[in-house]
Amino acid sequence: MPTTNPPLVCWNCHERAQGTHFCQSCGKLQQFHANEDYFALFGMPRKLWIEMSALEQKFLQLSWKLHPDNFVNATETERELSLKRSSELNDAYRVLRDPVARVEYLLGLENMRKEGEHKQQAPPELLEEVFELNESLDELREAKSSGGDLAGLKPRLESAEINFGERLREVDGELQAVARDWDAAVDANADEAARRKLMTRMNELLNRRSYIRNLVTNVAKELGEI
C-alpha cells in the first residue's frame, strides 16, 4: 500500500502546511515535498481512469496560480519555486493526459516498472509473424543494396504494418481492462498481493506494447523509403 507522506512544514512561517501548493497559514507557495507525485499535485488518487475535462480544468487553474508572472514582486524564494512548480505542473499534465504514460508513471511510483526486461523478446504468440517480417525486411535491405525490385516487397510490408497495428490496438485494449481492474482494487482497498499481481500484468503489457510499437515504427520507416 502507498505510504503516507510526512507532514510538510512551511519554509516561511514554519507551521504545518496543509495545502499541496500554498501554506494555509501564511499563503506562501510551498517547496516540493519529497514524496509528492503527479497524482497528488492534481489532488487525485493513484488511479488510472481520469476525466480529461476535469484534468484540463485543474491544469488551467493551477497554471494561472503558479505562473511566474504572479510572483514578479515576491521574494526570490517564491520566484524560484514558481518556476519549478510551473515546470513540474507541465510535466505532470503531459504524463497524466496520456493513458500509456500514466500507467508507466504509476508503475514507476510503485517500483514495479521493469522496462527493457522482456522488451527485446518477441511475444511467443507472435514469433512466426515476427520471423516472416524480419525475412521481408532482410529481403528489402538486400534489394536496396543490389538495386533489386522494391515494389514487389511493398504489399507484404504494408500487410505486416496493418497486422501489427491491429496487435498494438489489442494490447492497448488489454491494458485499459487491467487499468480498470486496478482502479477497482484501489476502491476496494485490495491487499498488496492483489495489487502487485495487477501491476505485474500491466508491466508485461507495456513491454509487449513497446516491442510491437517498435516493429510498426520500423516497418513504416522502411515503407517510407520505398
Structure description:
It is a single chain. The protein is an all-alpha fold and 226 residues long. It folds into 2 domains: 8-97, Helix Hairpins (Orthogonal Bundle), CATH 1.10.287.110; 124-224. Helix content is 61%, strand content 2%. The chain contains 7 helices and 2 strands. The protein has helices at residues 38-41, 52-66, 76-96, 99-109, 127-146, 154-187, 192-224; strands at residues 8-9, 16-17. A hairpin with a 6-residue loop joins strand 1 and strand 2 (16-17). It is elongated and about 75 Å long. The mean pLDDT is 86.
Summarize the structure.
With 226 residues, the protein is mainly alpha-helical. It has seven helices and two strands, in the order ββααααααα.
Topology, element by element:
Elements: E1 8-9, E2 16-17, H1 38-41, H2 52-66, H3 76-96, H4 99-109, H5 127-146, H6 154-187, H7 192-224
Antiparallel strand pairs: 1-2
Helix pairs in contact: 2-3, 4-7, 6-7
The number of helical segments is 7
Q: Record the strand order, biggest sheet.
A: 1-2
Query: Mean of the pLDDT scores?
Result: 86
Low-confidence stretches: none
Portion in helices: 55-70%
Q: How much strand content do the residues show?
A: under 5%
Total strand count, please?
2
Molecular shape: elongated
H-E string: EEHHHHHHH
Main sheet properties = 2 strands, antiparallel
